[in-house]
Amino acid sequence: SKQTTEQYSYIRNCNNNKTSTFSTNGIIPVVDLTKPEAKNLIVKACEEFGFFKVINHGVPMEAISKLESEAINFFSLPYNQKEKAGPPNPFGYGNKQIGLNGDVGWVEYLLLKNNQDYNSMRLSSVFGQNPEKFRCVLNDYMSAVRKMGCEILEMMAEGLNIEEKNVFSKLLKDKESDSIFRLNHYPPCPEMALDKKNDENMVGFGEHTDPQIISLLRSNNTSGLQICLRDKSWISVPPDYSSFFINVGDSLQVMTNGRFRSVRHRVLANGYDSRLSMIYFGGPPLSEKIAPLPCLMKGKEESLYKEFTWFEYKKSAYASRLADNRLGHFERI
Ligand code: GA4
């Protein structure tokens, strides 16, 4: 079938300057959300990788392509136009600089807030012609993706035999949910095509884990995304424009007391093609206490983490470097 057909991605690996061929569709779990076994596969994938791909996800292709073309239009604007929507403090347009502590990547992006008032922000200057249309297209996409995310989180709860099915999804559904949306554009990196450089400048987005509960990613058909396995090796994720890639965030790792893994991932720059990705980061309300669910604790099992609120975690995350182990601060020794 289509899903099991081998897909190859040719990526120049920036660390060892070797061109490697990967076929990883056999490793990365693929979950068909319409199948009854989905909930068990999701749990297994979250334990083993903290990462999986979903098909039959229910997000209309129309909502995806409409937002994709808005994103292409935006990133095609001249730099001085896009710059008007920046800097990303923390929302808005950003170029090469990631976060506030010196991280850089071969990427430009737009960081947006859930329920944002686009008219009142700098973005209206960029979507000047028709900010209303952008807002509608974005809202349609975000609602459909949030809905899929909540379904996945409910399957997760069922797969974990948790009685309260919406124990995770209610955090994303909450009016106060601190979710974020990100559009990333990785332009082709000419120096890579010419094979001039092979240092870390060639990284699109450096390795990191996501702080939130769950991240829902969709990209065009350009490779670049890699995930880190338990044995610390990196594998390339073959792109698939019609599927979503889901990853476990730090908060979900804590809520499952380490049973689910917050996956390290990165994006390598590409010499020839533009990569465009859109990611919904599902986060809890700022005041939410992030702690292992008592119903998941077996016998005398103790929490691996100190108690903290999402606000406290976020504050400490924004003071960190991208590659830092952010949960380290909150581990019980
Ligand atoms: C990683 C996940 C999301 O993209 C993000 C990122 C945020 C940013 O780009 O502003 C951070 C990064 C992310 C984690 C550590 C801090 C904050 C950059 C950075 C160095 C929007 C998020 O929530 O955390």
List keywords for this structure.
333 residues, alpha+beta, four-stranded antiparallel beta sheet, 9 helices, globular, binds gibberellin A4
Q: Determine the number of helices (DSSP H or I, runs of at least 4 residues).
A: 9
Question: Total strand count, please?
Answer: 16
Mean pLDDT: 88
* Distinct ligands, ions and cofactors found in the model: gibberellin A4
Radius of gyration: 19 Å
Describe the global form.
Answer: globular
The ordered H/E elements are EEEHEHHEEHHHEHEEEEEHEEEEH
* Largest sheet, strands/sense/barrel: 8 strands, mixed
Q: Pairing-aware structural class of the strands and helices?
A: alpha+beta
> What portion of residues belong to β-strands?
15-25%
Characterization of the model:
The protein is 26% helix and 24% strand. It is α+β, with helices and mostly antiparallel strands. Helix 1 packs across helix 5 (131-159) and helix 2 packs across helix 5 (131-159). The chain binds gibberellin A4. It catalyses: gibberellin A1 + 2-oxoglutarate + O2 = gibberellin A8 + succinate + CO2. Its EC number is 1.14.11.13.
Summarize the structure.
Residues 176-284 form the Fe2OG dioxygenase domain. The protein is 26% helix and 24% strand.
List the helices and strands and how they pair.
Elements: E1 9-12, E2 19-22, E3 30-32, H1 38-48, E4 51-55, H2 61-76, H3 79-82, E5 92-98, E6 103-113, H4 123-126, H5 131-159, H6 169-173, E7 180-186, H7 190-193, E8 203-208, E9 214-219, E10 225-228, E11 234-236, E12 244-248, H8 250-255, E13 265-268, E14 275-282, E15 289-290, E16 308-309, H9 310-318
Parallel strand pairs: 3-4
Antiparallel strand pairs: 1-2, 4-12, 5-6, 6-7, 7-14, 8-13, 9-12, 9-14, 10-11, 10-13, 15-16
Helix pairs in contact: 1-5, 2-5
